[in-house]
Amino acid sequence: MRSHEWIDQRSLALDRAIAQRLLADPSLLDRARNTLARWIGQRQPDPPLALREWQDCLERLSFDEIIALITSDDERARRLRQSSPFCGILPPAERLAIFKQYESRRA
By CB distance 3.0 to 4.6 Å, which of 25, 83, 93, 107 could disulfide with 50? Predict the structure, then answer.
């Protein structure tokens, strides 16, 4: 079984790779917004608080603030990463490479 710290660090590595993709192509942010809208639509009439918080972030924060949020290691960012709408941004091979890198580390 993996520790929470190990899982958090792997998730942070994924989000840092996602941030690099977003910096190269800011239009990918629309993919996250569409994913989030779909998830919220599926969870009506009362979507989870984390999804509503993501919605607020994606609507109110600047692009640079969103990048700072997803690359942060603070408590809020770690909590939000558990329901990140940025899935699907990384190509499967890149995602798998990060998973393999973390599998080789001790839990």
Answer: 83
Residue 63: DSSP 8-state: H
User: Which of 9, 29, 4 is closest to 102 using CA atoms?
Assistant: 9
pLDDT higher than threshold 90 for residue 84: yes
How many whole angstroms separate alpha carbon 104 and alpha carbon 63?
A: 33
- Of 22, 24, 92, the C-alpha closest to 63 is 22
**pTM for the predicted model, two decimal places:** 0.90
Name the one residue in this structure whose structure tokens are 């949020």.
Answer: 69
**Cα–Cα distance list, 47 to 40, 51, 59, 72 (Å):** 6, 7, 16, 25
pLDDT at 2 over 90: no
